[in-house]
Amino acid sequence: MSKKIAVLRGINVGGKRKLLMADLKELMNKLGFKDILTYIQSGNIVFSSELPPKIIETQIEKAIKEQFDYDVPVIVKEAKSIEKAVQNNPYFHESIDLKTLHLTFLKDVPSKDNIKAILEIDVKPDQFTIVEDNVYLFVEGKYHQSKLTNNFFEKKLGVGATTRNWKTTLKLLELSKS
Question: Stretch 127-149: mean pLDDT, rounded?
């Protein structure tokens, strides 16, 4: 069994689409996943499974819809791909304030045409770098004031997206090793 990390988009935000982590953990258990850990209330799950990520995404989305009547986008990554993403962050250096770093998980690799088009958009003072199915963010101010939102990436890249701050990303990686 390999470790996987699932990130859910848009639950427990502003009191909408409320989903307790205990209920999510129970749902994951019913789906047959093992070693299930959740982290904070925003839909982060570490678990073990031999199934491919795309099949797991569909299973979790369908189960949440059936049990809670919410359409919740789910992105599942292999833990080792998250580890690679952490190691390759182009904005990380020893003296950086981790609050400026975020990782946007993409549901699929965007098309070359969409990547080319988005790179022409001025998002200063913020910066982003797209590598495969991840977008590294350097956000100078507060993330909620940035142009680099999930909606921005979804519209411009044509793929699903959800973002985690760097501390959460590091914690998910740490949990995947336990």
Answer: 96
